[in-house]
Amino acid sequence: MDRPDLYDMTREELAAWLIERGQPRFRADQLFHWAHALLARGFQEMTNLPAALREELAATLRFGPAAPLEAREAEDSTKLLLELSDGQTVECVRMVTGPDTASACVSSQVGCAIGCAFCASGAEGLIRNLSAGEIVLQAVTLRALVGPARNLVFMGMGEPLHNVDALLKALTILLDREGWGLSAQRVTVATSGGARGIRRLVAEGPPVELALSLNAPTDALRRELMPGVRDALVDVLAACDEFSARHGGRPVTFAYVLLRGVNDQPEHAQELAQLLGRRRHHLNLIAYNAVEGLPFERPAPREMEAFAARLERARLNVSLRRSRGQSINAACGQLRAARGPER
Ligand code: SF4
Fold it and tell me: Ligand 1 centroid vs 127 CA: distance in angstroms?
């Protein structure tokens, strides 16, 4: 049988596991601190634990940053492809976002059921959910092997709110003050929507930032681009409004990938203004990263600027972001897709 994964345990679960083995509770705090704050690579580094316990742990628990199958670097980002215990692979990226800041971007599933027409992950469908430990493993590996990060974003492969149990547990582990100790405001959960999932996050999760992948101003165009999306925009936006209300009126970020001739026309700007104009929002326009074999193009810079200017004139709160990591296939799923399906 597979050994339990230390990264899959909250501090409370680790304490229960150690107490069952006759250890005092404070060992859980020490072990958790070594694993998540000090980023130990093996039990032998944990010098304040008795040698016999270190040996027992090494024989009973799975632990340690992953050895990436592949790493790709660009000026502002490093992408890792990690192999999981069943041979599936998953991608994670560290993106430099400022002079002293970087974000760890993690995946929540292998593949994705949303099937966005412009996304490499969507092409293969959902393969499986990740465990909380597999989500934590990505953040630990990026921080241990690539460099520190002050922010965490769920923007890799998969729809995090289709795997909400693992998402909530991973957040408990990653926000623990004995571990990485991130504040919830430094975490962004990016979702394609799903009113039920958003409401669960509101009810059960910490006060993270929410980013909705909008990508189209109407249900008809959105379903063409994101065929796995079920809920109508009116329902998803109502859940987003509940999220804002619950967190002191904090605006939701709406992400909109610009696809030339598809969703970047004047009528789309007008429809977006109608959709978002009266709610608290931040609209993040993102230049599309081309994916080989898919029939979409990034608009020219002046076209994107003209689209943003229209939205600004309609009083939307807009920013235009050129995608990071173009040279390393940094859109979700592209590195995995470039290697082909699992062997
Ligand atoms: S863009 Fe995101 S939601 Fe859409 S298929 Fe890719 S991973 Fe899934």
Answer: 13
332 catalytic per annotation: yes
Asked if residues 94 and 78 have their Cβ atoms less than 8 Å apart, the reply is: yes
Question: Which tens digit of pLDDT belongs to each residue from 29-78?
Answer: 999 999 999 999 999 999 999 999 999 999 999 999 999 999 999 888 99
- Given this model, what pLDDT does residue 82 score? 97
- 70-338: which CATH number, 3.20.20.70, 3.40.30.10, 3.90.25.10, 1.10.10.10? 3.20.20.70
Query: Which residue from 109, 121, 257 has its CB within 8 A of the most atoms of ligand 1, so it is best to mutate?
Result: 121
Contact status, residue 292 vs residue 41, Cβ threshold 8 Å: no
Q: Is the CB of 115 under 6 A from ligand 1?
A: yes
pLDDT tens for residues 179-203? 998 999 999 999 998 899 999 999 9
DSSP single-letter state for residue 25:
T
Query: How far does the centroid of ligand 1 lie from the alpha carbon of residue 160, in Å?
Result: 10
Phi-psi region of 217 (alpha: psi -120 to 50; beta: other; left: phi over 0): alpha
Residue 327 has pLDDT above 60, yes or no: no
Report whether residue 163 contacts ligand 1, using a CB cutoff of 6 Å. Answer: no
Report whether residue 237 contacts ligand 1, using a CB cutoff of 6 Å. Answer: no
Question: Measured in angstroms, how far is the CA atom of residue 136 from the centroid of ligand 1?
Answer: 20
Task: DSSP letter for 343, please.
Answer: -
For the domain 6-60, what is the CATH code? 1.10.150.530
How is the chain split into domains, by residue range? Answer: 6-60, 70-338
Distance CA 223, CA 304 (A): 23
**pLDDT tens for residues 243-286?**
999 999 999 999 999 999 999 999 999 999 999 988 889 999 99
